[in-house]
Structure formats: C-alpha cells, structure tokens
C-alpha cells in the first residue's frame, strides 16, 4: 500500500467500496477544518483521494500526528534542539516573540499580524533578533506554547487522584456543534480549572457526547478517567443530566462509578431562576427599554457626544448604556439597570430635544416619543429601582458561582445571606427604591413630570409578589444544594462553624459523621489514592486543633489553610 494512503479505511458493500474515511484527519485535523473524508467520502475516485492527500487540512493533520508520535518517543523537535544551544542573550530575545505569539493566540488575531507586531517592537527599540519573524513562525511558536500547556495538563491529570469534569455545548468558527471540556483538580492542594479540549461528537446524543469526552482523555493517555471522576457539571439539558440515558448516567453505568456527583451548573440555574421569577411581570418592559437605550446610542458618536454635553450642563457624568440582551450572567443586567437609572435625567432631556428637532426623520422622532412615554411612567422608574436592588443581591450569588475556588458551603452561605436580604423586602422598600422615592417630589423626578402615578399599596403588593416569586424560584432551582446529603456534609469544612478551641471535646467530635459520610460516598476513589477512613479521621482531628489554635486562619478561606 502507498505510504501516503495507509491512513485510509474503506466501507464496502459486497465487492465495491462505497465510503472512504481518513483516520489521520479524523483524529488529528484542526478543529476549525472540515472534510467529507472525516465523516466518510462517498466519491470513490483516485482524483478525490489525491486532492485530499495534498489538502492543507491533511498536511497539517499528518504533521500533528508526527509531532505527537515524536513526543511519545521523547524525541526533540528542531526548535527544542535549537533552544538547548542558546545563550542567555538569545534566550531573552526569543522570549519576546513567544509573548507576542501568545498575544496573537489569546486574542484570536490572525497570524499575519505577527510580523507587524514584531516590526512595531523593533521601532520601539526592543531587540528581538533576526529569526522567527514570519506568520509561519507565529504558528510554530503557538504550537509549542500549546504543547507546553498540553504537557502540564497531562501531568496534572496523571498525578491527580481525582478530578471533576465540566462540559458544555459550543461552536467554533466553522459553526459546527462542539463540546468544550474542562477539568477541575487540585494543583498544589488548591482547586484549579483547566481547559482540556474542544471536541466534535459524532452525534449530539448522550452516547456520542460521552465517546467524545473519552476520546479527549485518551489524547492525554488517560483511559481510566471515569474511575478518577468525582463530579460532572453541565447545563440541565436532558441529554446531559437525564436520569435514564443522560451523559452522567452513562458515565456512571459504563464506568461502574456510582459515586460521581451530577451538578447542574449553579450559575446557569440561578439565571433560569431569575427569569422564572420575572416572567409575566413588568420586567419584560424594563429589559426592552434597556435594549432600546443600548441600541439608540450604539455606534452613534454624535448621540454620545450630545449626551455628554447635557451631562456636563447638569453637573453629571454620562455613562454609556450597557448591553443586556444575549448575555447569560445577572451581573450584566445589573450594570445596564444601574446605568439607566443614573443616566435617566440626561437621557430624558436628550430624547425630548431629539423628538422636538424637526431635522430628524419623523419615523425616528415617533420612536423616540415612544421611549419617552415609557421612561416617564412611574411604574418604569419604580421597577428600575426595585429590580436594581434584587439584581444586586442575586449578582453577588452569580459572581460567587463563577469563581474557580467555589465550595459547596460558600455557595450555601451566600444563598442564605441573599435570601435573608430579599425576605426583608417583604416588609420594607429596598435602599434603591427609598432613594428614588425621596427624589420624587409632587410627581416630579429631576424636574420631569412622571405619568400614571401608582398608589403605594399597589406597589407594595407588586414588591411582595415579585420578592416571594424570586425566593420560591431560587429555592426550587437550587434546593438540592441545601438538601443533598453529601453537599450538606461539606459544611463541616467551614472552620467558621467549628466549636471554640477551648471546648476541646466538642471540637474533637465535630464533623466526624460528616467526614464519614463523604468518605463512604467516595470510598472507591479515596482508597485507590491510599486514603483510608481511620487516617482521614485522625487528620481531621489534627486539622481542627491546628486551625483553631492559630488566629491567622480565622479569616482565611479554608482551602488556603
């Protein structure tokens, strides 16, 4: 067989070939390149094979395969051999092109920008040597940076006793369905999130996604990933979290790993809870207004300049409206709401001027008059202030849920704190509503007459109804955080709940049942890493007395102890 075509596999019907697959491209082709030879080419002609062999995608796939095979044989690349012969001065010069290549990669700039950036640094007086200044050099440098990251992640995976998997649907620039896979494991005893791979499943069913995850781990020479997995986090789609045939259930069944905890992304659930709470309320009008104001100023330097001039006359500062639609995190909506409230007198003044200016198109003036009618509604102003306070409390939870070092007990504590603040709204206006009420005098806000003033009793009913809805939705969407036995046991690790060191007996007994609960659930994984219950309980006692006996740990995150 020709060595250039040994990578081809054939599917036959009878004595005839009806499909050709390139196994090299299927495993090693860049994610942003597609070809029929990956899924199976039905044009069985010599010319088709010849064209594929000479294609850019196939050439790059062959090069990637060769590089990975050299790496497995611990053979050095030409670039690595060159580095060994470098002196310190040359090494310092090479550092700058590497950093420039990293900038190209991290900000998704084209390789063709690399020579221009090198020339710019030359003009600024930096010494970068005379080599590795082309776009091809940028590609080589980025591949080596990626290789280092790959090696670090590989060592981390193999050294880790256990880890969690994070998986979510995504798309690359080819607009094909992908799954982005990340892992969280301990690095020097601290949890770290690492990107693993962007994979393309053969299909979007649960089995296809699980096979794609397994292939990703195989690239890191890890075929027992399920035996090391303690948690699987994704969105709430049934294909991922389905009780019978979801990815998590297949992972448990096929890996004989019943201990794996399924976690529906807390930040995603929080977003859904807030959407549920504000359904069929005036919040839809608020969001529509936020979006309208964003697009009114978007791309119009003239309107932004006019707003800034008005703000200067009023002794204020105009803040550019924030985009709110299409975003996922509550914090974005909070920023958009806060800016609209702050800009309200400036925007109303500008819109009035715009609507009265006959040089503007009548169609645009009519639209602006509509914005004005909505902005001057008492209910709109009240809702903006009310929603700002609620989103401010919820955003604290959202931002915590996005932290890399999030722990179960910190999530529960923040939820309880937010719920306490929200419950206070049942009987009292929040500070933002009180502030706006103080500014409304005789139906005027900043000198503008508000329309359709709503009686306070009606606003109180709205406030209580929406607040209760938010609390109910938070409880419904996030209840397993405070009801799951293993999650509840994790509360024992929050040293702020421990008995005082002076009560030695209470401290000695504290959390023993919780540690036992966690150990029993993850017994297989823990014993595989030479961790046994007797030793765990002994170390638990040592930890409690050590931490409570040192005042400097009193304000630290327990993970930093």
Question: What's the pLDDT, averaged over the residues?
Answer: 84
Note the gap between the termini.
Answer: 62 Å
The neighbouring-strand order within the major sheet is 5-4-3-6-7
The strand count comes to 10
Query: What coarse outline follows from CA principal-axis ratios?
Result: globular
Q: Could you tell me the strand content as a percent range?
A: 5-15%
Q: How many domain units?
A: 5
The helix count comes to: 26
Give unreliable regions as ranges.
none
Roughly how much helix do the residues carry, as a percent range? 55-70%
Round the Cα radius of gyration to an integer and report it. Answer: 30 Å
- Biggest sheet, open or closed, and with what strands and sense? 5 strands, mixed
Which secondary-structure class do the elements indicate?
alpha+beta
Molecular structure report:
The strands form three sheets. The chain has a five-stranded mixed beta sheet with strand order 5-4-3-6-7. The chain has a three-stranded antiparallel beta sheet with strand order 8-9-10. Strands 1-2 form a two-stranded antiparallel sheet. The chain is of the alpha+beta class and 561 residues long. The chain starts with 7 loop residues before the first strand and ends in a 13-residue tail after the last helix. It contains 26 helices and ten strands. It folds into five domains: 65 residues, no CATH class; 73 residues, no CATH class; 105 residues, Nucleotidyltransferase, domain 5 (2-Layer Sandwich); 212 residues, no CATH class; 76 residues, no CATH class. The model has no long low-confidence stretch (mean pLDDT 84). Helix 6 packs across helix 7, helix 6 crosses helix 8 and helix 14 packs across helix 16. The relative contact order is 0.05.
